[in-house]
Amino acid sequence: MRKPIVMRGRGRPLLSAVVAVLALVLGMGVPAASAADTATPGAGSGQRAAADGKLIGKPVILTGEGVDKKAQRPRSAWRAAPAPKAKTAPLSPKQAMKEAMDEARKAGAESYLDTSKVPLNKDGQASAQAATLGLPPTDLGDEPPAQDTNQCLDRDGASSAQGETLNRWLWCQKLRIGVQYYKIIDGEQVYQGTSSVAFHAVAVGNGKQRVLRTYLQAQYDSVEYDDWSLWDRFFTAPDLKMFILSDCAEGYDSCFATGSGIEHTFGEWDYHREWLHWDIYSDEAASTSPDKVLFHHWHFRFGGSGGGYVGPDATTADRTFRCDSAGYFSQFGVDYPKACVNYEVIPHLQYDISDTRVASVARHIRVAQDTPDKTYPIELEPKHIPGKYSGSRDDQGLQRVPDDGVVAKSNEDWKNYACNRTGPYGGDQAWRGLPPYDTSTQDCDEYPFQSTEQGASSPNWDFSVRAVPNGENRSAGGLLRWYYFSDRILYNAADPFWVEIRD
Q1: In the UniProt record, does the keyword Signal occur (predicted)?
Q2: Percent of the chain scored above 90 by pLDDT?
Q3: Which of 109, 101, 115, 104 is nearest to 365 (CA)?
Q4: N- to C-terminal Cα distance for the chain?
């Protein structure tokens, strides 16, 4: 990578020098410190002891509206960046899901597949044209996928403290990272100024390897020197340095990052436009679960140096990702045996009533979710049917099971009892089952789906059946399978999903 040209004072060195000389002539040096600008160093300050005249610093982060824009920001707008924590063991599935739920609720993060846009063939399966939709990233380059990245960064959530999760495969954030500098004068910390850079950050999962690739791009001409004296703004602050890299919060025996830190002066960061990237790997040997599932945290780590600077490193907020070695994902003859995905998201499937390919199935699910007591089979107690998407993970979701497993087979048996008025819905109980329908043109559709733990045989949840056109039933089934693949829904209770019916 070619080293950026150092251009102080935003490319106007002569003008900068003239301004600086005028500043000296006019007595515009370091401003007098107010009571709010001084603090006595101590154990609670998080700084190492420093001799008089030395700079010390506090790494800080800014998110929110306008982080890309140049503006003088008050010190109170910044929040202190957390110090790096000791490496820990991988998260348990229960702990990871709770953390992910909390973060997803805060950010309103939802991963979904708009099934109305997925092309199907005559058999109701995803057609070859669907290869442009929902396929997981595999061969990642030096830059993140342009279309998805731009779509993500254009959303309001990209500037939030949690960032924006476009889907399970891509997360992004706009943020400003910097350092607040203090000088030790007569044993006290005297605030000098804040230097910062605006960054675009992206994390992209992988559908064939247990790796998450993190990207970072400094925004051109975005460096700001808030509160520095005029002299230091041009002759001190631009020469101070900041480094950054990506890292995993868990121990090296389960998760590790590749690549070293990238360091530039603030003057150089101002003209550095290339995407930087680091890979974070998950070691399947650290997991004993059937699909070798592991949950991890990742973050950017950064700090400063130069000019006699003394100070600690810091990190951005931890983000959660999940890696697996589930060997049951394939599409168009291609296997996707391993993967890592962004996990701070509420995964949900969408069906549209306006989509004529699945309209009857969508109506059935809406009735089952909203008015379960108006559905067949008729039960003697109020019915409770789970899986409705409401934007919260607090509601009971659905968990996927193998299509050829014991639970799916039992779900099919109970569905058939209700559809054909047999078993517990036969004989003198036949009035509870689905009324006769034309089996030559209609199928008996069930919700929750046969491929879920909450299906018709569930002892804890009720179900609904309805006759729908057989073509629509096949199409809805094909779109469900496509959703399982595109959102990487695993066979376990730690990967619930929800169903949303739109008009």
Answers
A1: yes
A2: 63
A3: 115
A4: 51
